[in-house]
Amino acid sequence: MYRFFVGVDVSKGWIDVSSTEGFAATYAGRFSNSISGFKKVFSNLKKITSVEVPEWFVCFENTGTYSKLLLQWLCSQGIACREEHPAIIAKLPGMRRGKSDKLDAMLICEYAYEKRDKIKPTRMAPPAIAELKKLLSRRNFHVRQCSALKTSLKEHRSEFGAELLKQLDQYNTLLIQKHQECISFIENRIEELIQSNEEMRKNSKLSQSVIGVGPVITWYMIATTGNFKDFETSRKFSTYGGIAPFPRGSGTKKGRDKVSQLANKQIKALLSNGALSAICHDPEIRRYYQRKIAEGKMEGVVMNNVKNKLVARVFATILRGTPFVKLGNYA
After folding, report:
1. What is the arithmetic mean of pLDDT over 278-305?
2. Which site from 29, 76, 137, 225 is most exposed, i.e. has the minimal number of CB atoms within 10 Å?
3. Within 13 A of 141's CA, how many CA atoms are on the CB side?
């Protein structure tokens, strides 16, 4: 399907580009990370290949804000592209003695060629989902700042006198209040966004019908699943969230099943909070938790099972289109 492959190493101010129609990549140069730079790249590439643009495939690392402009431009031009996960790109080199943007661009290009039969183009998120992701990212920033402010001054209390400490504490409290105001403002905007979209509003209500799943978990699940369209099963989402156990063994050696560290740690942390809430407020989950602990199961394993139960329940409610139902064993 694709015959001309382009690898791009994205930085804040520029992009390094390489291309190939076979295995060995050729460096095409460095260009500005801007619309004018992108146009210049593809003007130059058209001079070195006879392959038509519909058969081009561009691959680059997801570098957050820096790579989003390139993704948007490529999609607007109808050019197939893959914004690859940073963990995958980081493992491409294997053993090598040096590192440079030029070499990274060539490695990414060769990776795209090698995976040409399996690699899938990245789709632009719908505007509502894209907006939700931006709001959640900003909310996460303010939450981190609040947490840092609450702990940092405590660690330095022994270093300051009583009067200075009192003044610093006052400023610290004001800063925390401002961050909390920003968090409240962002959460209100998120809820307005959810309520303004019929599909998102419906799925949000269904998700929160599951005991232990609150608004924040729901927002993140909607954002990361493309409103439950990008993950076919709860197992795939559990894998993404780092709570799905995988077997570990080779030959006659059989290890204990473990979860992978390649995961969305934000989702994993939120599901941990949801599991604790479910254990407190869901009689069925609480009985399950107590029974497994009494059987001698490790607490971490049982907690992970509870997280998987929550994810499975959410996906089940979305699939059925009806809220979670409490059965007789909830009495």
Report:
1. 94
2. 76
3. 9
pTM: predicted TM-score of the whole model, two decimal places:
0.83
Residues 6+ apart with CB under 8 A from 279: 212, 285, 286, 289, 306
As to burial, measured by CB atoms within 10 angstroms (0-12 exposed, 13-18 middle, 19+ buried), residue 217 is buried
pLDDT per residue as tens digits for the range 147-202: 999 887 777 777 778 888 888 889 989 999 999 999 999 999 999 999 999 999 99
Give pLDDT, residue 59. Answer: 95
pLDDT tens digits for range 64-102: 889 999 999 999 999 999 999 887 887 776 655 567 889
Length of the chain: 331
Residue range 296-324, pLDDT digits in tens: 999 999 999 999 999 999 999 999 999 99
Alpha-carbon Rg for the chain, nearest whole angstrom, is 24
Considering all CA atoms of the chain, what is the largest pairwise distance in Å, rounded to the nearest integer? 75
